[in-house]
Amino acid sequence: MLFTSYEFLGFILILFVLYYLIPTKFQWPLLLAASYVFYFLADPFYLIYILTTTVTVYFLGCRIERYREEQSGYLKDHKEELSREEKKAYKSGIKKRQWRLLLLGLLINLGILAVVKYTNFAIANVNFVLHCFGSSREFGLVDLVLPMGISFYTFQALGYIIDVYRGTVKAQKNPFQFALFVSFFPQLVQGPISRYQDLSETLFGGHKFHAETVCFGLERILWGFFKKLVIADRILVGVNTIVRNPEEYGGAYVLAGMLFYALELYADFTGGIDITIGVAQVLGITVTENFNRPYFSKSIKEYWRRWHITMGTWFTDYIFYPISVCKPMLKFSRFAREHFGEAIGKRMPVYLSSFAVWLATGIWHGASWNFVVWGLGNWVVIMISQELEPLYKKFHEWAGRRFGREIGENVLFRCFQVIRTILLMSVLRTFDCYRDVPLTFRMLGSAVRGGNWQIFWDGSLLGLGLDMADYGILAAGLVLLLVVSLLQRSGSVREKIARRPYPVRFMIWYGLFLAVLLMGAYGIGYDASQFIYNQF
Amino acid sequence: MEDLLEILRDLHPEVDFESCETLIDDKILDSFDIVSIIAEVNDQFEVTISAEHIIPENFNSARALYELIQRLEDED
Amino acid sequence: MMQASLSIINFRKDEEKVKRKKIMKAAVTAALVLTSLFLLQCLLVPKYATDVVEGSLIAEYYQEEKDHDVVFIGDCEVYENFSPRVLWEEYGINSYIRGSAQQLIWQSYYLLEDTLRYEKPEVVIFNVLAMQYDRPQKEAYNRMSLEGMKWSGAKVKAIRASMTEREEFLDYVFPILRYHSRWEELKSEDVQYLFDRKKVSHNGYYMRVDVKPAENVPEGNILADYQFGENAYDYLDRMTRLCRENDIQLILIKAPSLYPFWYEEWEQQIEDYAEKNDLLYLNFLEMTEETGIDFSTDTYDGGLHMNLSGAEKLSACLGRILQEDVGLKDRRGEKELSEKWQEKIIAYEAEKERQYKENMG
Fold first, then answer.
1. Which residue among A469, A514, A524 sits closest to C184, beta carbon to beta carbon?
2. Residue A113 and residue C72: Cα distance in Å, rounded?
3. Exposure on the CB side of residue C105, measured as CA atoms within 13 A
4. pLDDT band at residue C211, thresholds of 50, 70 and 90?
5. C-alpha to C-alpha distance for A221 and A204, rounded to whole angstroms
6. Contact status, residue C226 vs residue C263, Cβ threshold 8 Å
7. Phi and psi, residue A208, nearest 5°
8. Is pLDDT above 90 for C341?
9. Distance CA A285, CA A205 (A)
């Protein structure tokens, strides 16, 4: 069920009404039922996967928790008799058992994810290697369905079990509540990846109808539909024309495609997340924000703290830190500092672990070399900017002396930084547009050579499947996005709207609704595209 | 405590670590900084701060971090 | 004591006031939203007034006095090829054509069901070309055949039977969802015919007076399978049954259009079907002598459809059969009906005049 389908609208409408009609203690069971219905309607076969993840992680989590309880009980009972060493030995024994359970959970669930998502990628690569060695043998690709949202709920469940292992959260004893945590339907389509301690706060409690919360939620849903239908799905036509016909559209078109895609991806992804968070909010549930005006970032590093935040922190907390601070890495750190000097040696372990993170991030996004190159491209850019840090500092000092004030405060300079970040990200993202890696490099090369810059003013852009009216709407939409983003800097836009008198509020709501209704790219003639993040 | 402050000042000379209590919340320390700190603490204090200890509460101020180190020393 | 109870009363009054105000606010909002959406929908749906006027045909039926002796159902081979005016003037037969572009057989069937809600004609005439389609075809044609229907069970069933893969039922309920992006193409006719549509047909007949002789009509391509589909047969059966139950004589016809090609194998199947079900079947392709159709003067698009001259010839021939073989009564004596027809004939002549003038100029 796509967010942009009548079925989805009907589904949430019925759910909203039921949710506030029934006694509050039945609300979370209703959500569980709704989530499974949602999943069932997508494909009954998917249920096998999500149930496997739910059951294994639930039981392993409970088991890990039981060891912890056993441990504290045992230590309390035998407080006097045990020596320090004995206590330590006992604890590490428990830890070892917990670790085995955690490992089992990771292996099962990452195994499922790897098999459904990466089998064909692996086979294709093996075939390629065989081919290189002159073998005519070829393995056939397998036909596996990629269950909806598997990357999201798997990561959410794994985050939970790691937290239980670390002791930062207590295991959920109620299997049905746990099942709801894994399957909460607004998040199934494209995230965010919630943490158990965040989502569980509001997921299971009862929620009385609260007009303002519901109103805010509905506003957010409407805003999401605006971004998704009016902007993203409209410009998608232009993006597809460019990237699917690389022979025809080279040079400046590649640049146009990059910029279009930057807008498309932003509107599509943040719009989808707005719908997710809005639906949850109508239900009285708080879902972690996934974006924080990312296109205002002044560096790539900052950008990745503000774009797809829940994924970024997941990778940081569960991959980057564990690798960076594990014993071998600390040893390597000492070794590097001794042999390569303090300055470089200190950074080497960090770079190594962030390499691993970006490799994983790339592969997580999709089973293809394009994403691997994209992920590592991000890594390279971040490393380079880290290495250039001293140079930047010198430049800032020099500029400070030259102009008599800190250049970082200068609006123009900040705009330059923001545009630079957007451009850099757009260049990297071309890897997720074109068919394969060599083609992407060729197209980037052709963009650098340029030559046909006149397309930006001679009307060629009207030949991409977008007419004047489309560009008009896109321009207006872009301005609206910008205005809303700027307004957000001084606090919630919805609260600002709420302070206005009713006729003004009504005009805003109805205007936005009409914009979606009349200018949305939906229905026959518009192939409402799937959310880009749907199957990651 | 003084040793710890020195490690921190080395990273960010411009920050007043003795009074600041929002090192993580205000994004003064990023993930790279945290990893460097842990590596140096590991060297100087001979304690291992593992991934599970990397939570905002432990890194928001120099004091909190110092308390964490003491806790870990005690356990060893 | 007094004061306390007074203040309670006041408080209650205030509360009631707030409540009333809230209800008023909601009511005004709802009225505003619904009215504006309704107006927008009226504005955005195609008016079919000057372009593709075929889209207006189905809806026009409902404005008629429903007392017809003969009702035609089918595609362009009925609404462009028969003139009810001739049937009236020469034989006193009151007829109406419920035709639409590429009307599929289930649409014809449900249009018949729909018609029976209002009247019970003596004869229903169905053009069999639509038997060639067993599955939904094109959304645009669906729209033209279905949108004009008034809401009823028949319409719901017709929509369900007709939807192509990507169509949604809701788009029929609220056409604004289908036509939401038409604001780009709005013309003055969209405002002019906001509520009242322009009348484009003459009892369902779409008149054309221009001439384009039929030359080099292509032979039909060889088909993989000449057997009419199961679904199509099913609806033909249902049509036959519905007519029988209602005591209506069903007549199958094949209009004399040269193209789309009418295959011998198809002809055979219809002949067999008519014989088995004891139906009258008229293939006008084989009746050129009786009809007097001349394809160098009687068609406006090279043999696909009749022009006015062709349609009138064909109607004269059909009328004779209806009077002599079927035995329909001559109703020219009915005063009220005659008067109605008098008016219609004036409009018919005016349209004829207009088109001739336009073609000359």
1. A469
2. 61
3. 24
4. very high
5. 22
6. yes
7. -80, 150
8. yes
9. 9
Bridge partners for C196 per DSSP: none
Supply the pTM of this predicted model.
Answer: 0.90
Question: Taking the CB of residue A476, how many other CB atoms lie within 10 A of it?
Answer: 14
Question: With a CB-CB cutoff of 8 Å, which residues 166-195 of chain C face chain A?
Answer: 166-168, 170-171, 176-178, 180-181, 183-184
**Architecture of the B2-75 domain:** Orthogonal Bundle (1.10)
Q: C357 pLDDT exceeds 60? A: yes
Mean pLDDT over residues C284-300, rounded?
91
CA angle A147, A228, A458 (to 5 degrees): 120
A198–chain B Cβ distance below 8 A for any pair: no
Pair C83, C315: CB distance under 8 Å: yes
CA distances from A208 to A16, A284, B56 (A): 12, 8, 32
| pLDDT (0 to 100) of residue C172 | 95
The residue extents of the domains of chain C are 45-360
What is the reported pLDDT for B73?
Answer: 84
What is the distance of C-alpha C286 from the center of its chain? Answer: 27
- Helix, strand, coil percent content, chain A, rounded in steps of 5: 75, 0, 25
Closest residue in A to C170 (Cα) is: A6
Find chains touching chain C: ≥3 CB pairs under 8 Å: A
Extract the tokens encoding A22.
């029934």
Segment C89-112 shows an average pLDDT of: 96
Under the banding of pLDDT at 50, 70 and 90, the label for residue C149 is very high
Q: Tokens in use for A285? A: 């549930």
Residue C5 has pLDDT above 70, yes or no: no
Mean pLDDT of C330-347: 95
Instruction: Provide the token pair at A13.
Output: 């409408």
DSSP C5-59: HHHHHHHHHHHHHHHHHHHHHHHHHHHHHHHHHHHHHHHHS---SSSSGGGGHHH
pLDDT tens figures, C59-74? 999 999 999 999 999 9
Q: Which of A265, A212, A254, A241 minimizes the C-alpha distance to A481?
A: A265
Q: What is the ipTM of this complex?
A: 0.91
Q: Give the CA-trace dihedral at C315, C317, C321, C322, to 10 degrees.
A: 10
Q: Which of B32, B42, B45 best probes binding to A when mutated, by most A CB atoms within 10 angstroms?
A: B32
Whole-number mean pLDDT of chain B? 86
What is the reported pLDDT for C4? 62
CA A436, CA A393: separation in Å to the nearest integer? 38
Q: What is the pLDDT of residue A296?
A: 92
Confidence (pLDDT) at C245: 96
- Note the pLDDT of residue A411: 86
Nearest-CB residue to B49 (from A165, A325, A347): A325
Residue with tokens 């549509």: C197
Q: What is the pLDDT of residues C12-49, one digit of tens each?
A: 778 888 899 989 999 999 999 999 999 999 999 998 88
Q: Count H helices and E strands in chain B, helices first.
A: 4, 0
Give the dihedral of Cα atoms B22, B25, B28, B29; nearest 10 deg: 100
pLDDT of residue A533: 37
Alpha-carbon distance of C290 to C318, in angstroms, equals: 10
Coil, strand or helix at C329: coil
What are the residue ranges in chain A where pLDDT is below 70?
Answer: 525-536
List CB contacts (< 8 A) between A525 and chain C.
181
Instruction: Give the Cβ contact number of residue C295 at 10 Å.
Output: 18
CATH for the stretch C45-360 = 3.40.50.1110
Rounded to the nearest 10°, the torsion over CA C209, C210, C212, C218 is -50
Q: Which residue of A has its CA nearest to B53?
A: A166
What is the least distance, in Å, from the CA of A524 to any CA of chain C? 7
Whether the CB-CB separation of A297 and A306 falls below 8 Å is answered with yes
pLDDT value of residue A532: 38
Q: Is A349's CB within 8 Å of B39's CB?
A: yes
